[in-house]
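User: Please predict the structure of the protein below. I'd like the answer in structure-token form so I can feed it into my own downstream comparison script.

Assistant: Understood. Taking the following sequence of 126 residues as input:
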Amino acid sequence: MTQYARISEALRALVFEPDPGVGLSQVLDRYYAPDYTHRSDGKTLNRDEFTQMVEGIRSQVAGGTVTVLDELRDGSSYAERHVFHITLKNGVAQHREVAIFGSFAEDGRFRNLSETGFDIDPDQTR
């Protein structure tokens, strides 16, 4: 039976709780197909561009949490809504709600994801 990726697990492994003994490329390979594309607020990134984006985010984040509000998989289709609270290394805090729609590759990794989000109050989780 195919195990399907979850964005909350990917975010924890990539940004919020990275295992120092596991390289970024290994984590990306666990959750994202080789032909993965990422669309965020109208801009589409290929896998290499997405990797560079994640590297940049990782270098700035001191810690954070993700809370899944809704998540649905139907065949190869995926939808999820979450909130995250992060603290950057410069002390700035960010709080956002994000909605994601996408699809899975045959092996259960993400093939493409499109996301959009907005800032929320720090105490808001729904």
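That's the full token string. The chain is about 25% helix and 50% strand.
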